[in-house]
Amino acid sequence: MNLKPFRIEHYFAKYEFTAEYTLSSSDAQSRNLADLFALEPTAKTAMDKLWLGYTESPGAPTLRQTISGIYENITAEDVLVTAAAEEGIFLAYHALVGDGDHVIVETPCYESALELARSTGAQVSPWDRHFEDAWQHDLDALETLLQPNTRFMYINTPSNPTGTLMAPDTFRDVLAWAESHNITVFCDEVYRESEHDPTDRLPAACDLYTNAISLGSMSKSYGLPGLRLGWLVCRNPDILQKLHDMKLYTSICSSAPSEFLCDLALRHRQALVDDTRSIIHTNLALLEDFITRYTNMLSWVKPQASTICFPKVQLQGKLAEKFAGNVTAWCEDVVNTTSVMLLPGTVYDMTDHVRIGYGRRNMPEALGRLEQYLQDYC
Q1: Pairing of strands 150-156, 79-82
Q2: Which residues 6+ apart lie within 8 Å of 83 measured at CB?
């Protein structure tokens, strides 16, 4: 297995815990244990009695039952708990894809979606979306990627990094197309339930197509990345068994305290999502005003979901002169000068974009500091 350096995570490792503000964070505002225990008065006492032995490899039965309630046609037996979303992506590729296979990956995407596909030895074709087309999905372009050995397809809605949603008809058409060619679809849905308008929510892929795998996570919409748990959901028992067999070579089973706390949080997930959406609505209005005032430098496709967006950057004036149009060098200067971290689009192979996160309560202060920096160059 040959893997390239994980550029996104290397960049975060460099600045995430030293910068005062991470104006590029992909998760929603985090919570502490007291916040979770406040959701259910008896939870703290129950956790004090928690047995800290090994847990069941597929996940605690009660947690799997709770997760199944997020979906329409899913039972607890269709759920596999994972060590965060990253393990889920790894399991899917290495359990279901290998030499001689062809994989289609929607891009731009979280880096591991491409690199883990390549690490299997499979041939990988990006299904590109473009800013100039408002990140729309081109079904004709998808059709041209089909090969006789296409076995697997990765899609992501709501999207990282664009914050956009696949159009409902397109989503159903993609799944129907995959079914007609017997292609397994991996749908990264870690931002599901963070739609800015809940009526825009798409069905889960696993509810619509038997050979679709839906990926969920505690990290994004629910603001609990420190619990390090995610899940895979699929109604095809043969696919799920292969995923489980691969998990026995990775984490084997999950942390008992994390499973307990995830179950607690998901039983009250609407309260968490409502809080996240409140922060999003406040911050997104501020961000939209900011981009409007700096429209000569920043342009965007306004996001419909998640806590992130992916504006295009055109450095102007003194900034253009100083950095010669190099957005990564500009991001480095911003964080070193202001202690505000932006994620350069180079980690998505898109050199003229930045990822901005707006899911944290301190975003207004971070945005104010970035604006002062820009004004100093005007």
Answers
A1: unpaired
A2: 228, 229, 230, 250, 251, 254
* Residue 305 β-bridge partners: 195
Residue 377 has pLDDT above 90, yes or no: no
User: Tens of pLDDT along 271-285?
Assistant: 999 999 999 999 999
Contact (CB, 8 A) for 82 and 190: no
| Cα–Cα dist 189/200, whole Å | 14
Place of tokens 């995830």: 262
Angle at 362 between CA 357 and CA 365, to 5 degrees: 100
Task: Determine the Cα–Cα distance for residues 374 and 294; give it in Å rounded to an integer.
Answer: 9
- According to the model, what pLDDT value does residue 378 have? 67
Say which residues have a Cβ less than 8 Å from residue 270's Cβ, sequence separation at least 6. none
Task: Give the pLDDT of residue 376.
Answer: 86
Q: Are 206 and 88 in contact (CB under 8 A)?
A: no
Residue the block writes with tokens 């596999």: 80
Report the distance separating Cα 224 and Cα 218, nearest Å.
5
User: Residue 213: what residue type?
Assistant: I
pLDDT in tens, 47-68: 999 999 999 999 999 999 999 9
Rounded to whole angstroms, the Cα distance separating 23 from 16 reads 10
Average pLDDT over residues 323-350: 97
Q: What is the mean pLDDT of the chain?
A: 97
Predicted confidence (pLDDT) per residue in 223-250, tens digit: 999 999 999 999 999 999 999 999 999 9
d(CA 187, CA 195): 16
Question: How far does Cα 254 stand from its chain's mean position?
Answer: 21
Q: ω before 225 within 30° of 0 (cis)? A: no
Neighbours of 184 (CB within 10 A): 22
User: b/e per residue, 250-274, with b = 16+ CB within 10 A?
Assistant: ebebbbbebbbbbbbbbbebeebbe
Q: How many CB atoms lie within 10 A of CB 352?
A: 16
Q: Tell me if 57 sits within 8 A of 248, measured CB to CB.
A: yes
User: How many CA within 13 A on the CB side of residue 87?
Assistant: 22
Whole-angstrom Cα Rg for the chain:
21
